[in-house]
Amino acid sequence: MISCVSDPYNHPDFFAGIDRQTGYVTKSILCAPIPDRRNVVFAVVQLLNKIGERAFTAADERRLREFAPSLGLVLEGCKKLSGTGGAEPFPSSSTSFG
């Protein structure tokens, strides 16, 4: 299930504390499950603040839905290369690029 939130601050599940702490302003969110080769969800991808637009669109949802299985294959390959062999979940982390 893809989740698209166009007004996070008015969504009951949104935690604004991180935005307050960092000064970041979350304007829109697009999330999707990442399936493994057996189609079992083992990760989630979250996109924030579409560049140039206020919110993500139905076309963005479709693209992410199509891309998620490929991303799952890549992540599974990374797990194997890292030595976890796919038996352990990835640790939770937050990555910022800038």
Report on the structure:
The chain has a three-stranded antiparallel β-sheet, with helices on one face. A hairpin with a 5-residue loop joins β2 and β3. It is globular and about 40 Å long. It has two helices and three strands. The chain has one domain: Beta-Lactamase, CATH 3.30.450. Helix content is 31%, strand content 18%. The protein is of the alpha+beta class and 98 residues long.
**Mass-distribution shape:** globular
Instruction: Please identify the top-level CATH class.
Output: Alpha Beta
Helical content stands at 25-40%
How many independent structural domains?
A: 1
Give the percentage of residues in beta strands: 15-25%
- The H-and-E topology, N to C, reads as EHEEH
Give the CATH H-level superfamily: GAF domain
How many DSSP helices?
2
Are there runs of 5+ residues with pLDDT below 50, and where? none
CATH architecture term: 2-Layer Sandwich
As laid out across the biggest beta sheet, the strand order is: 1-2-3
Annotated CATH topology: Beta-Lactamase
> What is Rg?
15 Å
Structural class: alpha+beta
User: Average pLDDT, to the nearest integer?
Assistant: 85
Main sheet attributes: strand count, strand direction, barrel closure: 3 strands, antiparallel
Cα(first) to Cα(last) distance is 29 Å
Number of strands: 3
Label this structure with key terms.
98 residues; alpha+beta; Beta-Lactamase; globular
Please provide a brief summary of the model.
This protein is α+β, with helices and mostly antiparallel strands and 98 residues long. 31% of the residues lie in helices and 18% in strands.
